[in-house]
């Protein structure tokens, strides 16, 4: 369905606006109410508003009032008149869209006009995000009297992040939190602090390519340890660590990217114990920890099993990638060293976004039930469609995360990606997620975070591309 085909019924708009209160003129209430729905993402760019006659009947207002409200929306750039169609919502400056998550292990893929980007495993912004920015602007004057540098992060944000760990069963003080410009910045800061040149780092393969690249850019020598679709091989991890020689290990126990596996408490405790026994720093990436779809997992944060683990979190998947904020939860003894390492990269994250994130976390306004339902339905639909169309593929349905990790019957994922690109479908082959920069050509990550309408177009393109190369 194209943007111009969206139609907002009068009764639906009436319920979204709610009751009018106070002495605000009716036309101003209606115009401002619709504008707020647009800025909060509840009414999208390209949506056709109800006709003036329909809205008069639904709201009980005069035709003059509705006409004046629509005119005010047009004058402010939030609507335009469509000849023969009515009034259509506009976003001032246009709907930019895009902004997909880049994967540094491969060359940036450009999506042709009308194409579909099936590489990004991240949700869109939550409904109402613009309202949080407006509230944050009200608080901003309290900060602009100073220089604006908060190298460790705003105190209020460090407090709410620490409180969220406490809520999850991990005692944490604000002094243990360092706010960063995303999880990737957190990994880089940790590497600069605890790893010397040429340090050996153990990482499960496949793994998140940006973190792997960050460690490698620091000069670390990575050793790959296979992880299957069923999850982490804890005995294999224990054996590898026992061989010695490792300074750190990258750990993704929470809806692992890209496999989607979730490690239970017993496995977390054994893994943390092995790291402690062999004096290896564990860098725990919790970016996907809140991306459960079927039921909230009753697992403790991995750092609950060791006082030596360093945890990295991110706002990108739970809230919005555009915030560009993350954090480090570090043992007290390492906070100073990590702060020094981070100071060579930047002097702190933007103040306004930190205020926004503190509000979002406090009100738990991240992945809401409506978003989980949409993602769960997309996952189920895409999984069923692939299983039916390509029964030779082996696809485990994860309990969380943002993508399916598909096992192909032949090592053809790179050829598949090249073929799909010809029809405007951009895919990420499995080799991008390989720690050794090669292999995994029998695997393909297929995200399901896009709108269903885009997935419905992408699925037959993917099936046709596979048939062409298989």
From TrEMBL:
Residues 24-92 form the HTH gntR-type domain. SMART domains: HTH_GNTR. One of its GO terms (molecular function) is DNA binding. It comes from the Bacteria. Gene3D superfamilies: Type I PLP-dependent aspartate aminotransferase-like (Major domain), Winged helix-like DNA-binding domain superfamily/Winged helix DNA-binding domain. This is DNA-binding transcriptional MocR family regulator. In the C-terminal section; belongs to the class-I pyridoxal-phosphate-dependent aminotransferase family. Pfam families: Aminotran_1_2, GntR. It comes from Paeniglutamicibacter kerguelensis. SUPFAM superfamilies: PLP-dependent transferases, Winged helix' DNA-binding domain. Keywords: DNA-binding, Pyridoxal phosphate, Transcription, Transcription regulation. InterPro entries: Aminotransferase_I/II_large, HTH_trans_reg/aminotransferase, PyrdxlP-dep_Trfase, PyrdxlP-dep_Trfase_major, Tscrpt_reg_HTH_GntR, WH-like_DNA-bd_sf, WH_DNA-bd_sf. Transmembrane segments: none annotated.
